[in-house]
Amino acid sequence: MLDEWKLVSSAKERKKEEEEMKKSEAETHFQRGLNLMKTSNYRKASECFDEAIRTNRSQDFFQKKAKYLSYYGLCLALGEDKVDEGLSFCKKAIRENFFQPDFYLNLGKVYLKKGSRGKAFMAFRKGLQFDNGNKQIISELKQLDIGRQPFFFFLFRNHPFNKYMGILLARLRSK
Question: Do residues 105 and 127 lie in contact, with contact meaning Cβ atoms separated by under 8 Å?
Answer without folding.
Answer: yes
